[in-house]
Design a protein that fits this description.
Layout lengths: L6 E6 L3 H13 L4 E6 L2 H9 L15 E4 L8 H10 L8 E5 L4 H9 L4 E4 L4 H18 L5
Parallel strand pairs: 1-2, 1-3, 3-4, 4-5
Helix pairs in contact: 1-5, 2-3
Length: 147
């Protein structure tokens, strides 16, 4: 990862506390990143398509990774995942489902819709920091992504 610029991560989650904890956990990790947060699936798609308040590309750089909650208002994570993976511009972006759901049907469905990983949100901040560090190490140090 050395020599790479800051990595853009897009998090779609309607829970303010989870977003704040994820931001703090990512800050504790060692990789250079820029976190953008959207509150629902519609806003996620507006961000990706650079529509509405994201019309300026400087405010909505293409993410290298999407952290996706399943249960959100307006358009849930499942619907957004279908749209992301059906679009030739976005389908290569790794999508990590990061949710409180432990339901087997959500796990199966997420993978069948093209999710790259399914992670149940940890309950403690220390565990979340560890998850974020692991995500960063795996996706940005180990795996070669198509930039």
């Amino acid at each position: 990862m050395e020599g790479r610029q800051s990595i853009t991560i897009l998090m779609a989650d309607d829970d303010d506390d989870d977003c704040m904890l994820a931001r703090e956990a990512l800050a504790e990790s060692s990789f250079q990143h820029e976190l953008h947060i959207v509150k629902d699936g519609e806003e996620l798609m507006d961000y990706l398509f650079q529509r509405e308040k994201y019309a300026n590309p400087k405010n909505a750089p293409l993410p290298a990774l999407i952290l996706l909650d399943l249960n959100m208002p307006k358009k849930d994570g499942r619907e957004a995942l279908v749209e992301i993976k059906a679009n030739p511009t976005f389908k290569h972006i790794p999508v990590i489902v990061l949710t409180t759901s432990k339901a087997e049907e959500d796990i199966q469905l997420s993978y069948s819709l093209g999710a790259n990983s399914f992670i149940i949100k940890p309950v403690t901040f220390a565990s979340l920091v560890e998850v974020m560090k692991t995500i960063g190490k795996y996706w940005f140090d180990i795996v070669e992504l198509p930039y």
